[in-house]
Amino acid sequence: MSPSSDANTTPKITAQVVAKVAHLARLDLTEAELALMTTQLTGMLDHFGDIDKLDLSAVAPMAQPFPIKNVYREDVVVPGLDRQEVLDNAPAPQDGRFRVPPSNGSES
Amino acid sequence: MTSEFVSVVDIVGSIRGGKTTASDVLEQHLARIDKRETEIHAFNHVMAESARANAASIDADLKAGNDRGPLAGVPIALKDNMCTRGVPTTCSSKILEGWKPPYDATVVTRLQQAGAVIVGKTNLDEFAMGSSTENSAFGPTRNPLDTSRVPGGSSGGSAAAVAAGFAAASLGSDTGGSIRQPAALCGVVGVKPTYGMVSRQGLVAFASSLDQIGPFTHTVADAALLMEVIGGHDPLDSTSLDQPVPSLTAVLGQGVKGMRIGRLADMPDGCEPEVLARLDAAFAALKAAGATIVDIALPSLSYCLTAYYLVAPAEASSNLARYDGVRYGLRVESADLISMYGATRAAGFGAEVKRRIMLGTYALSAGYYDAYYGKALKVRRLIANDFAAAYQSCDVILTPTSPTVAFPIGEKTSDPLTMYLCDIFTIPTNLAGHAAMSVPFGTGAHSMPVGVQILAPALGEPTMFRVAAELERAS
């Protein structure tokens, strides 16, 4: 995916970009969902273009309300989560583990 | 007091004084649930059985002379995005249907230690994304005051549960107004504490730099009491502020004499005239009580919507990556791992959640990061700077909580942007990490309640609660 413009103006979104983003987000969208999403995201991003008129060159970004620092605690052993209680929530537990389909696309 | 229902403070007093029991109080609330829950749908899950056992245990302890804490016997409802051990926690999403957390959220533990009786888990917009509770996978919640209208959102079930008398108080979460807006639309008190004052441990994350848990109550004094119970440092939340909650119940009678109340010189368009009339009445009441009204400006206010709807979806797209069908919740089986992820998430998430994951993924993706997420973070700084400047000349700022009263179900569902505009007054507080609350202050169009919002700087809760108490006296 390549940017369609520089950072000073908001780029336009296309159906191809929406399909690529859906893949990145691991969301299987139907053709109808992709079309609707393209229209709706276009509308939103048009509206969000309002901040293009601001001069933000001297403004520091703010990702958190307050400065975040590393938090340490005493290294004390405490009970972890109950293993069975955790596995009971899994869609496919097997032999005390989480079973998943193969990652290379073929059943072994 | 907004209705015929009994406040938390009065329930605690009556149980302690032996005039009633925790079990009797609980049965009164369960009877109201029996009568109206089908119509309102405030709950995803009513915990009648465990609540009855808890109430009986509290009554037995009190009879034996044991103190069970400041909320002994008070029925409280929890938004269904707070973890309750062994009790379903769905976030109103199909992707978490049936999930039973293996631990309690810190707020749940604190409520239980204070003697509260948890009555159930309340409906919300899926993963707290919405302003009307219409985005729930399990169907909308209706406003108890007019069931053709929304209760607001995303904590609509928690607001409705209090407004309908299903619980004496409830907890919600507020990422861009999700406590204050439904509180306003349902005619109850709702508090969004300073970021870090209430632990987020066990709150299912939506946008971690914006999320805060807070109470819904009938009265300002009840909200102050709840804050004192649930607030305070928690080592399990790395963004928890390392200080105690200031005393709030003690300041309620101190009045507003000499206080400086900020008024927006430029009010954004789109407010109903009746809402603005109630705001004017609130200013008049505070002036009559000895406060001074000061005109202030928040020049970046109109850009907050853009900043929020880029920052929150960006954080959400990252936080919701954990729902992959591996360790908990829904799985749609597929031939390989990647297609299992895509199929599971497509089946498990609703339309609004998908929209926000897409928006957030786009705003964070290579080539677009600077143009969207990066810029939004800078606008976030601008609004924080605006507040810092405004609070040089005032102690709190008063605005409407919502531009309108509760709207009809279905009115805003077709256009996401129209729904997003509901949050114009509530979003800036979350971006800045400040405190804010909504207090009911009369009615507007269609005789529906209007909420006035009090904005305060970080850790400004004591001042904010003094103003809230004054408005409550005047309403």
Helix-residue proportion of chain B: 25-40%
Give the name of the CATH architecture of the domain at 8-230 in chain B: Alpha-Beta Complex
**Element string of chain A (H = helix, E = strand):** HHHEE
- Major sheet: arrangement of strands of chain A: 1-2
CATH class of the domain at 8-230 in chain B: Alpha Beta
Low-confidence stretches of chain A: 1-7
Task: Please give the number of β-strands of chain B.
Answer: 11
Global shape of chain B: globular
Going by CATH, the homologous superfamily of the domain at 8-230 in chain B would be Amidase signature (AS) domain
CATH class of the domain at 1-53 in chain A: Mainly Alpha
Radius of gyration of chain B: 21 Å
Helix content of chain A: 25-40%
Q: What structural class do you assign from the helix and strand content of chain A?
A: mainly alpha
Features:
heterodimer; A: 108 residues; mainly alpha; Histone, subunit A; two-stranded antiparallel sheet; 2 strands; 31% helix; 4% strand; flat; disordered N terminus; B: 475 residues; alpha/beta; Amidase signature (AS) enzymes; 11-stranded mixed sheet; 15 helices; globular
